[in-house]
Amino acid sequence: MLYKSKIQGWDKISFFIVISMLCAIGIFYFYSAGQNTIVGFIADDAKYLLMTDFFSPYYSLLSKSAAFIMQSTQFPPLYPFLLAILGASSENLLLAHILTTSFFLGALVIFVIWIYEDGVNMLTGACLSLIIICSPASLFMNLDLWSEHLFLLFTMCALYLIEKARKNYKYWLVALLFISSLPLIRVTGVAFLLAFFVYLYINKIPHRFIYMAISAIPIIVWKIFTTSNSPRGVYENILSNFYEGDIRPIVEELFLGQLPNLWIGWHQCFDIQRNLESGLVAACVLALASVTWALRLKNKRLDSLYVMFYLILMWLWPSIDSDLRYIFVVMPILVYYSCLSLFLILETYTKESFKKLVCYA
Fold first, then answer.
1. Between 3 and 283, residue with greater pLDDT
2. Which of 110, 170, 303, 325 is the most exposed place for a label (fewest CB within 10 A)?
């Protein structure tokens, strides 16, 4: 059964089996994270670790490299700051990996709670979490220090709290805390911020302009701080280099380069090698997800607005080989959408078949 109901009978047994599997896989994730003793295969993780050294109140020796990174980078600070406060550093790399894995597993827990609040039962939520945690994307993302895990955790918390705030306004302030923090984890969090602004406006939420102002303050302050250190930052240079020049090659690159890159990222969520069979599965999941996305967009749901703005931003953002990381943070939502669409289609088909059977009889 898909929709929220009390778990009993065989469903209760199935639920505990799935939870046991999730716990076992979670232990494996912690174990594999603990085996990662090298940082720097991707430049971002080494920079994050040096930023963690800079923020750490426990680090015994503040290196010149950490100070240089803080002067030159425009990476948002919240992920390395939380690692530092919780005790991680280049002197404690194991803890950095354990914390990052904890962020991801925590995100899955909140994911289940969010969709339960959305009207789906716990068993279905646990099964979806099992699918996500077993995906190649999740296994791959557990190999290094990625800010995407914390970003996903805060995204799930924000969606859950907004769902609660629709019924009880006391949740708004806590929701604003998570929403305003997203751009401080990854710059792409501005997509959630924009979706939130539109959500407030089209749903005519009371005090919406106050909520908009409060949620925008942290990213504005951070932008002013980074601009004072470097008048033109890394992100501005990337965008200007891509969008300068004639419009025709830019449009060609967007449709012949960027769009296929997004598909590659989505395909790799299911198969890093991108075989034909897994491509068909990825295409079917995406097609099913688009049905529920359209329905939720029509109903002015925040998550559908976020997915739309986020994917548009990723399409417009110049990238070469990081599309798996970009798509990873919306993969759980799209998998959830595909599940809803599948049940909707099966339910409709079953009802129509039953009506035909009754008429025939």
1. 283
2. 170
- DSSP letter (8 states) at residue 203: T
pLDDT, tens digit, 9 for 90 and up, residues 348-358: 776 655 454 34
Cα-Cα-Cα-Cα dihedral of 309, 314, 317, 320, to 10°?
Answer: 180
User: Which stretch of 146-155, 224-233, 293-302, 328-337 has the lowest confidence by average pLDDT?
Assistant: 224-233
The candidate with the shortest Cα–Cα distance to 111, out of 77, 138, 81, 136, is 138
Decide if 47 contacts 84 (C-beta within 8 A): no
Residue 160's contacts (CB-CB under 8 Å, 6 or more residues apart) are: 110, 113, 114, 117
The answer to whether the CB of 197 falls within 8 A of the CB of 322 is no
Helix axes 276-298, 259-268, angle to 10 degrees: 110
Q: Choose between 89 and 283: higher pLDDT.
A: 283
The C-alpha angle 104, 105, 108, rounded to 5 degrees, equals 90
Which runs of consecutive H residues, i.e. helices, occur in the chain? Answer: 10-34, 43-55, 64-72, 78-85, 93-117, 122-133, 136-141, 148-165, 172-181, 190-202, 208-229, 234-243, 247-253, 259-268, 276-298, 302-316, 323-328, 331-360
Residues 281, 270 contacting (CB under 8 angstroms): yes
Cα gap 236→342, rounded to integer Å: 42
Q: How far apart are the first and last CA of the chain?
A: 28
